[in-house]
Write a structure and sequence with these properties.
The structure holds 2 protein chains of 2 kinds.
Chain A lengths: L1 E8 L5 H6 L4 H14 L4 E6 L3 E8 L8 H12 L3 H4 L4 E4 H12 L11 H16 L4 H20 L9 H13 L7 E5 L3 H12 L4 E5 L3 H11 L2 E3 L4 H7 L2 E4 L10 H11 L4 E5 L16 E5 H17 L1 H49 L5 H32 L3 H9 L5
Parallel strand pairs in A: 5-6, 5-8, 6-7, 8-9, 9-10
Antiparallel strand pairs in A: 1-3, 1-4, 2-3
Helix pairs in contact in A: 2-6, 5-7, 5-14, 6-7, 7-14, 8-9, 11-12, 14-15, 15-16
Chain B lengths: L1 H5 L2 H18 L7 H22 L15 H22 L6 H17 L14 H35 L13 H35 L3 H4 L6 H22 L7 H32 L20 H9 L1
Classes of the chains: A alpha/beta, B mainly alpha.
Chain lengths: 423, 316
């Protein structure tokens, strides 16, 4: 089997090139159909995400696989750009390197944020689109199924996906879960209605947060955000009252001075009755006076605190990288070992069939000449022939199998040549 | 059934010890099947624990009608419940390393059971009285409940302290959420108050029955006995906390509950030490006939006296 990949990614191409080579889902099937019309006898998969476009082609025989230039030209042609424009920004890998690359991509080792979870589903979707275009793609099936399995193994055996790395996801997915068991029965106050508030709200909603109230100086912005999350709106002058009943506060205003100082917090403390309060102050400058953090049962985290946590998680993911790479290498070796075993299996089957045909022909000829021999002796002769063939074939077959498993494959090639067997 | 008799304390104690080792190892590295092995060993330990207690007759009701009639049975039963609680927590919160806090308490109970193996049986004259069963059983469950509250309270303080100091959570040292820990602490506080109240009431009932039956010398309690007043103080402390907990909301929140359950445990350790010292002293005194009359105590929390020995001494 021969496999080749050409494409671009955030490692080698800038965003302009990636944009020009990007494909939407609806464009993938026509792209693959055109490819099959041009290069018959091949299999193809197109993976296109915001950070990469990768075009995989596989063929059973080397002569059927398009060259690297053919693939790049085809890709550029489909995007309506010239080869000169994109050639320096592309990468190309063949065979083992291509397999290793796909395994790394699927396991999220090649992603911009190592360990991000979406890439595996994007790889699966790319393969699904390829099978919808051409249902008979056994070679790429083998490669992509292995890639998905490898990605799962990396995920299970390392902590590369374990720690979140964006500020809102760390705040809600990590820190809030250390304080609250569940969010669906918590009063969540969002102060400010900017992008950060919106992004944080997505995580709150996906973790079950329902009782949400948004307070913003511009009421219209609060109403617009409240509509997206089915939340309530509180007037700005109700902030103090809302603070006294909230469990979780996310503050993201652009105020130049703290909007909640120590005096204001002290005034609501009695009403709070020591109920734990988790404050995410994601504003710069800060919205909450730093002194509030010292209050009992108050857990105040600023953007700096969260970024430290994110950085810690990022380093933690990176520390898993060598272990993940080791798994990729092991799995690539295993993939080729399996491939060779399958190849040797089909060659050995061919050899056995060929020898069996010769044996059968000779046996028939002999039996015709020994008509007077009784059936019992005929059976013994037939068994002797079978034993002879098996005994002769056993040592070379065993040697070929162990040679293929070991990775050389030289004996297999020799066997093919000696007995004139096909691939 | 030879294998039943071959099961020793070492079997389940070693299982729990290995589980503790595995819990500690979880804070250092991740290994495949670590969790399955931990759960498997805990189940195996619980099985061996149960079989051992059954085979040694520790679960039997003795001739005086008392269930868990000595310190060893009492400690082993309490440690069994702690092990079951650990299994429940490790299934509910698989990512948390609660075992590091809970298993040492469990091991301490097993060690106490071994150390107190030679102690005499708890004594009562009102044999087969239901009060004795209620007394011993509720005190044992109350003790376990206080111990569990202590574990949850301690974890709460560690977790709250880490969050206050904004230290990142290590992926190898995860603890349950503050909300869950607070809920568990509260529940253990309430249940321990109720169980210890039941233990105390049943102890008073036993004492009153004995007094009415004229068994004062041998088995009634001197109200000035340290065991009595320390039991009463522990109960009053728990009652006070529970009442405050019910009517004054701030005390229900956050670290205060944790501090309270930890203080209850320290109280309990103090109480058990008094019970044991008083019982131990009495046991030694009872072996000397000339001083028999001077010691007349039987604890609210069941106390070791050999009933038959006392009876003989009284006859004399």
């Amino acid at each position: 089997m021969k496999l080749q990949v050409v494409g671009c990614s955030h490692h080698v191409s800038n965003v302009e090139i990636r944009e020009r080579l990007a494909f939407s889902e609806t464009q993938v099937k026509p792209f693959l159909s055109t490819f099959y019309q041009t290069f018959s006898g091949c299999e193809a998969v197109l993976l296109s995400t915001c950070n990469r476009t990768e075009f995989y082609a596989a063929a059973r025989n080397p002569e059927e696989l398009p060259s690297e230039t053919d693939m790049v030209e085809f890709l550029a042609g489909q995007c309506g750009i010239t080869l000169i424009d994109i050639n320096p920004d592309l990468f190309a890998y063949r065979d083992r390197n291509a397999i290793e690359h796909l395994f790394s991509v699927a396991a999220s080792l090649d992603s911009m944020v190592i360990g991000e979870a979406q890439i595996l589903s994007q790889v699966k979707r790319a393969y699904q689109l390829a099978t919808e275009t051409n249902p008979t793609i056994p070679l790429t099936h083998q490669v992509f199924q292995s890639a998905i399995r490898v990605a799962r193994r990396v995920s299970n055996e390392t902590d590369i996906h374990a720690n979140r790395v964006s500020v809102p996801s760390v705040a809600i997915g990590v820190l809030a879960k250390q304080i609250f068991e569940r969010l669906d029965n918590k009063r969540i106050l969002i102060v400010g209605a900017g992008e950060m508030a919106e992004e944080t709200l997505n995580y709150i909603r996906s973790d079950g947060g329902r009782d949400i109230v948004i307070a913003n100086r511009t009421l219209a912005h609060a109403e617009a955000l409240a509509e997206t999350c089915e939340g309530e709106v509180a007037a700005w002058d109700q902030l103090q009252q809302e603070l006294s009943i909230a469990d979780l506060v996310v503050s993201t205003t652009g105020a130049k001075q703290p909007i909640v100082d120590q005096a204001m917090f002290e005034s609501i403390e009695a009403q709070r009755k020591q109920k734990p309060l988790f404050i995410l102050d994601l504003a710069v400058p800060r919205d909450f006076d730093a002194g509030i953090a010292a209050r009992d049962n108050v857990y105040l985290y600023t953007l700096d605190d969260l970024q430290r946590e994110c950085e810690h998680n990022r380093r933690s993911r990176e520390s898993q990288y060598p272990q993940a790479i080791k798994i990729i290498e092991q799995e690539t070796d295993q993939f080729f070992k399996e491939l060779r075993r399958r190849n040797s299996g089909s060659t050995i089957a061919q050899l056995k069939q060929q020898v069996d045909e010769v044996k059968q022909a000779e046996l028939t000829r002999l039996m015709n000449r020994l008509e007077e021999v009784d059936p019992k002796h005929k059976q013994e002769i037939e068994q002797a022939f079978n034993r002879l063939v098996n005994k002769i074939l056993h040592p070379p077959v065993k040697s070929v199998q162990s040679d293929s498993t070991a990775g050389s494959g030289g004996l297999l090639e020799a066997l093919k040549k000696l007995f004139q067997l096909n691939d | 059934m030879d294998w039943v008799n071959k099961i020793s304390i070492t079997c389940f104690a070693a299982s729990y010890l290995v589980v503790l080792g595995l819990e500690v190892s979880r804070t250092l590295f991740n290994a495949p099947y670590q969790r399955i092995v931990t759960i498997g060993l805990t189940v195996a330990g619980l099985f061996a624990h149960t079989v051992y207690m059954a085979a040694q007759g520790l679960l039997d009701v003795d001739a005086n009608g008392i269930w868990l009639s000595n310190w060893t049975a009492w400690c082993f039963a309490a440690s069994w419940i702690m092990a079951a609680a650990y299994l429940w927590v490790s299934l509910r919160k698989p990512e948390s390393v609660v075992g590091i806090f809970l298993l040492p308490v469990l091991m301490a109970l097993i060690v106490a059971g071994i150390v107190l193996r030679d102690s005499a049986s708890f004594s009562v004259n009102e044999a087969k009285s239901g009060w004795n069963m209620i007394h011993g059983f509720s005190l044992m469950l109350g003790t376990v409940s206080v111990a569990l509250g202590f574990v949850f309270g301690l974890i709460y303080l560690v977790q709250a302290n880490r969050l206050k100091q904004k230290k990142p959570q290590s992926k190898l040292f995860r603890l349950p959420s503050l909300e869950w820990l607070q809920r568990c602490s509260e529940r253990s506080l309430i249940s321990s108050t109720l169980l210890l109240a039941l233990g105390l009431i049943s102890g008073i009932a036993i004492n009153l029955i004995n007094q009415r039956n004229g068994n004062a010398v041998a088995t009634t309690i001197a109200w000035s006995n340290p065991v009595v007043w320390s039991s009463a103080i522990l109960f009053l402390w728990l009652l006070l906390i529970s009442i405050f907990n019910a009517i004054y909301r701030p005390i229900q929140q956050g670290r205060k509950v944790a501090y309270l359950v930890v203080s209850c445990f320290l109280f309990l350790v103090f109480e058990l030490a008094i019970v044991w010292i008083a019982g131990h002293a009495e046991h030694q005194t009872k072996t000397q006939p000339e001083t028999t009359k001077s010691t007349t105590t039987v604890s609210f929390i069941a106390q070791p006296i050999q009933a038959d020995r006392i009876a003989k001494e009284e006859d004399r």
